[in-house]
Design goal:
There is one protein chain. This protein is α/β, with parallel strands linked by helices and 303 residues long. It is built from 11 helices and 11 strands. It has helices at residues 8-19, 23-30, 34-48, 64-91, 108-118, 135-142, 177-180, 187-191, 223-231, 241-250, 280-302, and strands spanning 53-56, 59-62, 97-103, 126-132, 148-151, 160-173, 194-198, 216-220, 236-240, 253-255, 263-272. The strands form 3 sheets. Strands 3, 4, 5, 6, 9, 10 and 11 form a 7-stranded mixed beta sheet that branches. α5 (108-118) crosses α11. The protein starts with 7 loop residues before the first helix and ends with a helix.
Length: 303
């Protein structure tokens, strides 16, 4: 294995000479002697076996090879600086990765906005995101596979704070037979049609939620697939309003005229997988999510 012959300090010195306009100016900024800078750059050129600088008057100017190598060296020095910062953050308890598990009912656009806001504050912490349905969140907590969870039901032995209220609405395509009845619908009407339901992603703790009176049920793996099925006229079902809104605005999906239960509200909670071990990155992301949801809830109340 070949080891580098030059050091990061040599590259930093070369960058300073160019950025500050010469050896004298760089020496003043770096609080070093001009002779030590000259020696460092001369040694760098000797080790590389090529000239990187030439002197024009009193100014040091890059050679063509020097321009290429200087440009590459900046990325190298930046990467090394970032690596040192990550090491420092780890030493300060800033975790390298956060495992986030989110119930599929949580608004995706809001989640992505929160993660985007977290990036400049993350200090190199990675996020592993897993979307689940129903008991999938419970199992992630119980099996210790998550640091931060957004779920609809807080398992026994855990504490959670209410985060956001999600509204579901019963809809079907505008040409669906249920809409052709042109009257208030009963449970008997629904039993005759296909209900589109979303499969619980859990393995051990599977549970059914919502009206399941139809003997004809088609099961899909996600809310997105359920929405596609409803838009395609395959049946009726309950999906989050934020998923259905665009299609309801265009008229493709229409709320079912149910006697009761057309809309239902589901509360989602935020739960720390291991509160006593949650690091600053996990707490920062949780704070961003709370602020985002508080803003959304306030806006909804004002409207």
């Amino acid at each position: 294995m070949n080891h580098p012959r030059v050091t990061l300090e040599q590259w930093r010195t070369l960058q300073a000479v160019i950025d500050y306009g010469g050896y004298a100016q760089a020496a003043e900024k770096l609080h070093r002697s001009q002779s030590s800078l000259s020696y460092t750059v001369a040694k760098l050129q000797q080790q590389l076996g090529m000239p990187l600088l030439r002197i024009e008057g009193r100014k040091a100017v890059l050679t063509p090879a020097g321009e290429v190598l200087l440009r590459r060296s900046r990325q190298l020095v930046d990467d090394a600086t970032e690596l040192e910062a990550v090491a420092h953050n780890l030493d300060q308890g800033w975790e390298p990765e956060i495992r986030v598990v989110v119930d599929a009912a949580f608004p995706s656009a809001q989640l992505m906005a929160a993660l985007k806001a977290f990036i400049p504050l993350s200090r190199g912490t990675r996020v592993q995101l897993n979307e689940v349905v129903l008991s999938g969140a419970d199992e992630a907590l119980l099996e210790g596979q998550a640091d931060l969870v957004i779920c609809g039901l807080v398992p026994q032995g855990f504490l959670g704070n209410q985060l956001i209220e999600v509204e579901f609405v019963a809809v079907a395509h505008r040409d669906h037979p249920l809409h052709q009845l042109q009257r208030e619908l009963t449970n008997e009407d629904l039993r005759r049609e296909i209900q589109v339901v979303i499969r619980d992603s859990g393995v051990q703790l599977k549970r059914d939620v919502g009206w399941l009176g139809s003997s004809h049920r088609w099961t899909v793996t996600s809310i997105d697939k359920a929405t596609d099925a409803l838009v395609g006229g395959l049946g009726f079902g309950w999906i989050p309003v934020h998923h259905a809104r665009w299609y309801m605005n265009t008229g493709e999906l229409q709320p079912l005229p149910l006697r009761a239960g057309q809309r239902k509200n589901v509360y989602l909670f935020m739960v720390f997988g291991q509160p006593e071990r949650a690091g600053p990155a996990t707490h920062k992301l949780a704070e961003i999510l709370r602020e985002s949801c508080n803003t959304t809830n306030t806006t909804r109340e004002e409207v």
